[in-house]
Amino acid sequence: MLIATLPGDGIGPEVTEQAVRVLKAVTGDLLTFEQGLVGGAAYKAAGHPLPEATLDLARRSDAILFGAVGDPDCDALERHLRPEQAILGLRKALGLFANLRPAKLFPELADASALRPEVAASIDLVIVRETNGDVYFGEKGHRKTADGLREGYDVMSYNEAEVARIARVGFETARARRGKLCSIDKANVLETSQLWRDVVIELSAEYPDIELSHMYVDNAAMQLVRNPGQFDVIVTGNLFGDILSDQASMCAGSIGMLPSATLNSSNQGLYEPIHGSAPDIAGQGKANPLATILSSAMMLRYSLGKPDEADRIEAAVAKALAGGARSPDLGGTMTTAQMGDAVLAAL
Ligand code: GGG
Known about the structure:
alpha/beta, Isopropylmalate Dehydrogenase, 2 domains, ten-stranded mixed β-sheet, two-stranded antiparallel sheet, 19% strand, globular, binds glycylglycylglycine
């Protein structure tokens, strides 16, 4: 099976390297890894954040292991050349619309959570974030107003098929867990959100076993901190999901702990930590690779049909943490490679 490894920028290469070590240890010679350029690194080497060769590799692969994109050297570039366009372009080109972001507190990390330990202990949820639509892909531009003011705009839109497709993933994910789905929108203000809510309610007729609730995104941000244990599965749009999953990560100890899978309708997937490229600590061995290692476990489970191997990696991460493995974001001093060593030793 072919894995496209796209390390990207900043800490992306460091964390991806550790995930590849763990994948090789667990799968032997089952997987072939082929590396591609993406993000700012690709722009610098090939003049585009998502070169055709990378797209071709991604299309040929069984799964993609993605590090992170974002490079301050590229801040002045036109938007279509910025590193972040690589991840948006990959999601769109491969139809990767369902981004699953589990947030769970490893008990050993209760002291690292931004929440009181008894509140943090309850967090065990999955955010299902739509990643093919919303303001990220709507018409955008800038213009001058009638009175000569500069104005930027990003059009937010969803059609009912896009909403139904991601809502179905939400219902199915809830069915495989504790049976609760909370749909998050801003239906009191936004037309897209009103449509979102209507479509979710219509689809709920097919899922009478799922306890469905709705919440406005501002309230959801507050409830995630107040009582994260009330959530099982959250389904939401691209922008709200992007923001809420970063927030959830701090409830679960660190943004360095949260993996993700982004799937298309044939379960080909892109697997990446939810964190970005963290240029401030790039190349210093300070990055926590556990989110990427846990993303590789999701890859084994969702795209490669290897659930036992996925369980092994997740158990090894838990064992490494129980044994005291801590990178700086978790209050420790271990390097990126030492964190990888600890997981390998625990396998
Ligand atoms: N590994 C995640 C990453 O590189 N994030 C950078 C980014 O710009 N992400 C945009 C998004 O997730 O929509």
